Amino acid sequence: MSIESQQQRYRLDPHARFRVMDDEGIFVLQEAGEVLVVNEVGAFIVEQLQAERSVDEVVMAITDRYAVDQDRARADARSLLDALLEAGAISKA
Amino acid sequence: MSYSNTIKRAWTENRLMSVLLELTYACNLDCTFCYNDLARAGQPLSLDQYRQLLDDLAELGILSLTLSGGEPLAHPRFFDIASHARSLGFVIRLKTNGHAVRPAMAEKIRNEVDPFIIEVSVHGATAETHDRQTRVAGSFERLVANIRTMTSLGLRVKANSVLTRWNEHEVEGMLTLYDELGVLFQIDPEVKPRDNGDMEPLAIEASAEGRAQYRSALRARAKRDDADTDTELPGGGPKPVVQQTDKHCGAGSNNIAIDPYGSVLPCVQWRVPVGNLHEQRIAEIWSESAGLQQVRETTKAARRMLEGLGDAAVTSNFCPGAAHVYSGDPLALYPAAEQGIAASARARVRLTVL
């Protein structure tokens, strides 16, 4: 992964809606008419994106909050971001 | 993780997910079986109160917001309210009769509201039947044209219909019309009393033969489309959420309705106020209303009552709100519920035989 991509910021797609409910996050993809539910960590990551944090900053936030090392946090964040990008839930800012 | 599990948790843990706002009872049509209590009066919520309410609902994490009426587009500040809702990230469902959604209006709705879906009321497959219901000549032709406009703009449209004695002979035609228009649909087989208990609308409820033909038409459609429609067969299948909770429905547990005068209701059909926004903020009502607690207990009691009547009753169309309108007792069976339970039982027998 390039240095540049670690500074990348993402935002909710304009047609996506997102809410955190307790320990999970719910995406409604308006154009596709689909719902995605992410777990607590996923919801936390999306909240970081909404706060306009870069991938690096998101990874730091994960390691600050959860007992995981940076490599694991980065891999999990990347995996979620790729899935959300593919679903059309987020896009590059 | 699954969305049905999320809904189950919302029911069980009383997490408010969905709110329906009746913005006004004003309407540009004059439907014979309109369920609104048009004589009801009070102090309407102001624009500032709606903005406060929407801010509070966003703070509570509410996902889904339905804008309804009467005719919501008849509210003079509709776009102020709806665009504020959009800015707060709600999934917006607009329930309208569609009469005012001419091309310019449809475009404004798309651009300023960006609804997830627009639900329009269709009362038949022909102008004669639809206009008889709306009591406005030309309303059918105008609605069909407006639906075409909405879909051409990329808006998702769903046709809501109620089966009546007047349109029961047109079910096949209505299904064909929905296909041709490319819209989702839902046909409610049950005409309900007015919110004030007036039973007059029941005079045009569908006949037993009409309901049987409707079920037959939907079964044929489901078979053809491999059940890929937005319409559930009455009693035709299990409701996973229902089977996993101790409540019959989510009234007052994951959804509420709010009338134009600020009354907070357990749901759009259960017209027993549990608080009023002129007196309390919504978060306070949600967490402290004794009336809501009672409603939640009643939905549990309804579940136990229906379980006592068998599986067919559990998956039937029984509605505590409708029961309350019929008799004042949210646990009392009413004619349409008894018919629904019987239909559900027949469907189960058929599934067993098959």
Question: Explain this structure to me?
Answer:
- The complex is a heterodimer of chains A (93) and B (354).
- Chain A is an alpha+beta fold and 93 residues long.
- Chain A has helices spanning 3-6, 40-50, 55-65, 70-87, and strands spanning 10-12, 16-21, 24-29, 34-38, 90-92.
- A three-stranded antiparallel beta sheet of chain A has the order 2-3-4, covered by helices on one side.
- In chain A, a hairpin with a 4-residue loop joins strand 3 and strand 4 (34-38).
- The radius of gyration of chain A is 13 Å and the shape is globular.
- The two termini of chain A are 18 Å apart.
- In chain B, helix 2 (47-59) packs parallel to helix 3.
- A nine-stranded mixed beta sheet of chain B has the order 6-5-4-3-2-1-7-8-9, with helices on one face.
- Chain B has 14 helices and nine strands.
- Chain B has helices spanning 3-13, 47-59, 78-87, 103-112, 127-134, 139-152, 171-181, 208-225, 240-244, 282-288, 290-307, 311-314, 320-327, 335-353, and strands spanning 18-22, 64-68, 91-96, 117-121, 157-162, 184-188, 255-258, 263-265, 275-276.
- Chain B is 44% helix and 12% strand.
- Chain B is α/β, with parallel strands linked by helices.
- In chain B, strand 7 and strand 8 form a beta hairpin.
- Chain A binds chain B through residues 15, 17-22, 24, 26, 28, 30, 33, 35, 37-39, and chain B through 1-3, 5-6, 9-10, 13, 15, 17, 61-63, 89-91, 114, 116, 156.
